[in-house]
Amino acid sequence: MGPIEDKTVSGDRVIVALDVSTYEAAIAWVDRLPEVSFWKVGLELFISAGPAIVQELKQRQKRIFLDLKLHDIPNTMAGAARAVGRYGVDLLTVHGSAGLTALEAAQSAAIAGATEAGVTPPQLIAVTLLTSIGPDRLAADLQVSASVADYTAHLAQLAKMAGLAGAVCSPQEATTLRSHCGADFLLVCPGVRPAWAASGDQQRTLTPAEAFAAGASYLVVGRPVTAAADPVAAWERLVAEVASS
Ligand SMILES: O=c1ccn([C@@H]2O[C@H](COP(=O)(O)O)[C@@H](O)[C@H]2O)c(=O)[nH]1
């Protein structure tokens, strides 16, 4: 079943972030949490371990969110997206603020790469505004005068216009983005914090149950599970919370 079709709230819609620096550490997490079906490979792991970690996760029939957050000129975005397209991953991030032309270039190049390799193309999702940035930093650091809601809705709509499958947003914006972008647009939400987990550097958070209720398609969770004293118990508690919501 593809990511868009699966609307049931369950652990299959919770992506766990493999924020570790070695191939061996990543595989140790996959072995430790066998119930997790969808893993996020981010910059730290991909730069350290390379495509081998993607190949191993595919071998184990895990779904893969390759969170590379591509952000460049259209020609460079296209080259990178074409290369990722060949991997057969499920989701790939680009930054929405790269602009419409770059998003369109990445989208068509990812399909071209997948076609060359004979694999299913990744669904491209555009980062709207990093969940570590609050309204004060949006104005002060980025000099954006729009509200977080308006800014993220604009970038999500740009992604939709470019033909992307969805956006990355905080769960706090999920309801607004869902109403702007429609039922089939993927909303992938990091910045998720159960009541029992520390927020750390995340600024715009909701609990997992609140995030799904707001319209999230998928949640991305790292430290609430991986930094817990008992990660297996933390995963089970989180899944139980969303299943009963
Ligand atoms: O806006 C964004 C985009 C991506 N992320 C990624 O999600 C996980 C969250 O990890 P936690 O430990 O649960 O905070 C992490 O890999 C980020 O790179 C994000 O947090 N916000």
TrEMBL record:
Domain of life: Bacteria
Residues annotated as binding substrate: 19, 40, 67-76, 131, 193, 202, 222-223
Pfam annotation, one family: OMPdecase
Active site positions: 69 (proton donor)
Spans through the membrane: none
InterPro entries in UniProt: Aldolase_TIM, OMPdecase, OMPdecase_AS, OMPdecase_bac, OMPdeCOase_dom, RibuloseP-bd_barrel
PROSITE patterns: OMPDECASE
Keyword Ligase attached: no
Molecular function GO terms recorded: orotidine-5'-phosphate decarboxylase activity
Protein keywords: Decarboxylase, Lyase, Pyrimidine biosynthesis
Pathway: Pyrimidine metabolism; UMP biosynthesis via de novo pathway; UMP from orotate: step 2/2
Reaction catalyzed: orotidine 5'-phosphate + H(+) = UMP + CO2
E.C. number: 4.1.1.23
Family designation: Belongs to the OMP decarboxylase family. Type 1 subfamily.
Role of this protein: Catalyzes the decarboxylation of orotidine 5'-monophosphate (OMP) to uridine 5'-monophosphate (UMP).
PANTHER family hit by this protein: OROTIDINE 5'-PHOSPHATE DECARBOXYLASE (PTHR32119)
Protein name (Swiss-Prot/TrEMBL): Orotidine 5'-phosphate decarboxylase
